[in-house]
Amino acid sequence: VVGVMPSLFRFLMYTVSFFIGWLLLKQGKRKLFLKIISSFTLAGVITTILFGFDDVLSNNISISSGQFRLSGQFEGHALAFAMYILVIFILFYKLSLKQYQKDKKIIKILISYILLIGLIYLLFLSGSRLLLFSIIIVVSLDKLLSSSSFLKTLGSSVLVFLIIFSTYNFVMYTDLAPRMKWLINDGIEKALLPRTLIATEALSSFDYNNSVFGIGLGGFDRHYFSITGRPGVAAHNNYLQFFVEGGIVGLLSLFIFNLIVTIKLFYYSIKTDDVIIRLGLLLFVGIDIISFLNNNYYFPFSQSIVWLVLGASFCIIHERNRTASTPHSNWTLV
User: Fold this and answer.
1) Considering the entire predicted model, what is its pTM?
2) C-alpha dist (Å) from residue 168 to 40, 181, 185, 318, 326
3) Which residues of the chain fall short of a pLDDT of 50?
C-alpha cells in the first residue's frame, strides 16, 4: 500500500488535469484556457529566473549523483527543477514568443529571447543534458511544422547544428569554461552509469513469472530495495518501470499509448494548425517521448501541466471530428 498510493495519486492527478483541460474547451472557454496558461507561464518564467540566478550568484549549487546540480525553487531536487524549466520553456516559446513575433513587438521579442536563454543556462546547470536535447528537438519540430519552405527549415536546422557544434568545441577545446567542460565530459558518464546499473540490476533479479502483468503499481522501489538494499531509487526509465510494475501488458500499453497520442497530435497539428494542439504535441514529445530516461511521471507538478494541455488538445480534436460529421452543430472553438 505504501508503494501503491503515491503512484495511484500521481496518475489520478494526471487524469483529473486531462479532464479539466477537456471540460474548459468543451464549454467554449478557449480564451480563458489560453489566458490561464499564459499567466501561469509568465509567472513560472519570472520565478524560475529569480530563484535560479539567486542560487547561481550565491553559489548555492548542491552535489547530486557526483555532479554539481542547480535545483532553484525545487530545493534539493535538480531533476524536478529541470523538468519544470522544460515545461515553461515550451509554453513560453510557443505562447508568448511566437505571438510577439507575429505582432512584431521588437522589445518584447528581445526580452523573450533573453529569458529563454536564461532558462537554457539554468537547465544546463541543473545537469540534465537530455532535457537540453529535448529543447533542440521541440524547437526544430515546431519550425518544421510551421515552415512553408523546406529549404528555409533545412537552413535553420543547419544553423542550429553549427551553433551547437561550435559551442561544444569552444567549451571542450579551450579553458574558458572549465565548469561546462566538466559537466559535458565527466557529467555525461556519471549520469549514464547509474541508469545502466539500475536497469541491469533490476532485470537480472526480476522474477520472469511476473513478466506478463508485472509486480504491481508502485512496486519498482520495493523490488530494487530487495535486490540492493538501497531505498528510494527510481527506475530512471519509463519503459523499465512499466515493465517491472506492469509486465509485458504494461510495457506494450505504454508504447501503444505514446504512439497513438504522438501520431494523432502530429496529424491534427498539421491539419488544423491549432496552437493548443501544437502545444500539446511539443509538450508530449519533449516530456513524455524524449525524456523517458528522466521518469517524467514521478513529477506531478510538471506532468499535470502536460496532461492539462493534452486534455484541451484532444477535446479540440474530438469536437472537430464530431462537427465534421454533423455540419449543423453549434459548437465553437472560440
Assistant:
1) 0.85
2) 33, 9, 11, 44, 54
3) 189, 334
